[in-house]
Amino acid sequence: MGVMDTLTRSTADTVAKTDSKKWAMDRSEALRVVFHALDGDDSGSIEIEEVLHLATGMCQTMSEDDARAWFQEMDKDGDATVDEAEYLEAMLKLTDDLSPQQFEHRVKDLLARTNKEVTDPRWYYHCENNREYLEAEVVPLLESGLNEMMRAIEAERLRVASGKDWDEDGHVPPDWRPMRPLQFLGEYLRENSRTMVRKREEEARLAAEAAAKAEYLNRTFDEMDREQKLRYSFDKIDGDGNGALDFDELVFVCRKINPGKGVEEARMQLSWMDKDGDGQVDQDEYVNAILEIMQDVDEETFVNGVKRVLTAVQFAKADRIEKLKMVFERVDEDDSGELDRDELTKLAVALVPGGDEVKVRKTMKWLDANGDAAVSFEEFKGPMIEATEGLDDDQFDAAVHKLLAAEGEAVEPDPADDLPPKFGAYVTQFPSHAKCKWIGVKRVDSMTRDEKKICVVDCRSPDERAVSIIKDSVPLGDVKFVSFEDNNVEAVAGGADVSAACEGADVVVCVSAVGAEGGIAAPILAEKLEGKVEVRNLVGGIVAWYNAGGEVVDGEGNPVEAVHPGQRRCIGFVTRARKNAFKFPKEEK
Hints:
- With 589 residues, this protein is mainly alpha-helical.
- The protein has 5 domains: 3-12 and 23-123, EF-hand (Recoverin, domain 1); 130-192, no CATH class; 199-316, EF-hand (Recoverin, domain 1, Orthogonal Bundle), CATH 1.10.238; 326-404, Orthogonal Bundle (Recoverin, domain 1); 437-573, 3-Layer(aba) Sandwich (Oxidized Rhodanese, domain 1), CATH 3.40.250.10.
- Helix content is 52%, strand content 6%.
- The chain has helices at 3-8, 27-38, 48-58, 64-74, 84-94, 100-113, 130-162, 181-191, 194-217, 226-237, 247-257, 263-270, 283-293, 299-317, 320-331, 341-351, 357-367, 377-387, 393-404, 421-428, 441-449, 462-467, 489-495, 499-502, 516-528, 541-547, and strands at residues 45-47, 81-83, 244-246, 280-282, 338-339, 375-376, 438-439, 454-458, 474-475, 507-511, 534-538.
- It has a 5-stranded parallel sheet. Strands 1-2 form a two-stranded antiparallel ribbon. A two-stranded antiparallel ribbon has the order 3-4.
- Strand 10 (507-511), helix 25 (516-528) and strand 11 form a beta-alpha-beta unit.
- Helix 15 packs across helix 18.
- The radius of gyration is 33 Å and the shape is flat.
- One of its GO terms (molecular function) is calcium ion binding.
């Protein structure tokens, strides 16, 4: 059976013949409603996964091959997604032979299967299994309600007959009213409906959460047990207070809490967190999953991990003064509100690269201007603001991270955190991300403004470079990359000679599509250049550069609005406002 036959097989047996005026449905409008129902992530386009979900949901006999063929028929521009215009054009042709009755039936059936909430009565559909629903839920509830009503009527009859409600004179009181059976039944059905039962359960859950929250908020952090510490950290992460976290945020959180866990392993561990399948993780789901992940971690590591998360959240929301306050409190080990000589010495050592003693003494004198060996935050704040005035935000944050790092080592913000969540989670799972030095687009832009010399080495294949390159970049060679297990990047980088191009550079930046190939090449080039210049991998690659508004050019140096994402799966990471002119060729059927 072909795609057309599969999608448009007759539903005449299930639709009664009706006056055609009753079925006057605007087809374009109806199909747009279906499109937005299918576009579950509101991206403005339908991906193959959404089409497969649609196909299997609306037609049990449609194979995956049929669905893929239909998808490719609609994907006119070959970008691996179907936008509204492409969808509408294809669907109007596809449904042209349907009668008005068949068309309306199919549209309403599709909407019902997407589980999208329908408020407009034009699109409401009575599902074919309504009888099962009535028999399973409505009839038993109605039967129970009628039984309760009869018991209430009998109880009232006996109470009236007993004279219990009469006054001293043997009369019914003026404010007495007889029971209203239909009102009783309606209230019973409403209070015991599935909606109201769920509402009461949700209210009970929220009340229990509030009680548990009140319990741990009355404790200091050190007094909290593991579960309470996680609930406390959840509240801090949940900035908008909606009680739920996005899945990709949780990957970031897991990576911050326990750096020893690989990102891919963390994603696998977290894949079952969303127990109710609503696409979000509530507090209970979060706490239970993290407790399981961290069950074999000792207490000190667990506490330090949670504190790192809390610090990261606080840091992200803080301004410069607040960040300096964090540094001050970190150095003020005895919480005296002043830095004594020992604390000043530790701070000075952290501020001076290499720990040169002369420079350390000068730094201490600079911090403690009056020489009383007691520096308040107000005294500390002034020289620090003055000293960091010329730093951009990334440089300032890197300096503060160095001072906040528990091990005393410089810790730069991960540029992947500046990428959209899904993009950032994707690039941080690369094995090379944890091994090589990296740099973000913001830092490259800052160095460019400071007129630093940057040598860009393009670590992509010739086909990718043919679409666009970063101006004045140096090609690494004939790179072939299928996966981290199947590529020749190491061999090409090992045989490449980029020393002449990199001479005099302040930094060498390896660029690939999204950062995979560059992460392999960067350490090899760094070794070949013998430490004469720092070599870093551009996180997110040319796609991140392009998304941030960076210029790309063709082989003749002309600016273009096109970038090759490396692999089809990465096409969705290209989010620049202007549409990407590059399209993958259509796959052969």
